[in-house]
Design a protein that fits this description.
By secondary structure, this protein is of the alpha/beta class. It is 19% helix and 28% strand. One of its GO terms (biological process) is positive regulation of neuron apoptotic process.
Length: 176
C-alpha cells in the first residue's frame, strides 16, 4: 500500500537526525581503488562563511531574494551541528573581498553563497547587491594555497546557489 509506506517513510525521516561519520586522515581502499581522506580532528572542523545576498540595490535592477533567509538559517544550523564556526554575512557588494583569516587551527573551509547569478559566464558568476558579477573562478582562487597559505593542503568546499532570474526590463550589463 503506497500511502501506508509513504506515511511510514515520512515518520522515519521526521524522527531521524542526519549524521556524518568522519574518518581520520589517511587513505581509504574501496574495490581496489585508493581514496585520500583529509584530517578532520580539530576541536572545530573549520570555518563556514555564508554570504546571503537578499536585498539588492535599486541600481542593480535585481529583485530581492526574500526566501533566501530560510535557506540561510537552515544552513547555519546544519554547519554548526557539524562543528563548524559559522560566519553569516548579509548583502555584500561585488567589491567586498573575503578577509584573510588564519586557518591554521582548522581542518577545512566552507563557503556558501546565496545570491543572484549569471549564466553568461562559464563556470558562472554571482551578483553583489550592487549588481556587478564576481566570477566563480575568482571566488574559488581566493582560497588557494597562493592567496591563503593556511588553507594549503586542506579541503575547501564551495556551495553556490545562484538564482538565475530575469531582473527587470533594464539591462544589468551594457550590450555591445
Amino acid at each position: 500500500n503506497y500511502l501506508k509506506g509513504h506515511k511510514q517513510c515520512t515518520i522515519m525521516l521526521n524522527n531521524h537526525e542526519p549524521s556524518i561519520n568522519v574518518l581520520t586522515g589517511g587513505s581509504l581502499w574501496f574495490s581496489g581503488l585508493s581514496f585520500h581522506s583529509y584530517k578532520m580532528d580539530a576541536s572545530h572542523c573549520g570555518l563556514c562563511l555564508i554570504i546571503n545576498n537578499v536585498k539588492f540595490l535599486p541600481e542593480s535592477y535585481l529583485r530581492s531574494r526574500n526566501g533566501s533567509n530560510i535557506d540561510c538559517d537552515k544552513l547555519e544550523k546544519r554547519f554548526k551541528s557539524l562543528n563548524f564556526i559559522v560566519d553569516v554575512q548579509q548583502d555584500l557588494t561585488h567589491e567586498v573581498t573575503l578577509s584573510k583569516k588564519d586557518h591554521t587551527k582548522y581542518d577545512c573551509c566552507i563557503v556558501v553563497i546565496l545570491s543572484h547569478g549569471s549564466k553568461n559566464l562559464i563556470p558562472g558568476a554571482v551578483h553583489g547587491v550592487d549588481g556587478p558579477t564576481v566570477p566563480v573562478e575568482d571566488i574559488t582562487s581566493f582560497l588557494n594555497g597562493e592567496h591563503c597559505p593556511s588553507l594549503q593542503g586542506k579541503p575547501k568546499i564551495f556551495f553556490i546557489q545562484p538564482a538565475i532570474t530575469r531582473a527587470s526590463s533594464k539591462s544589468v550589463a551594457p550590450c555591445s
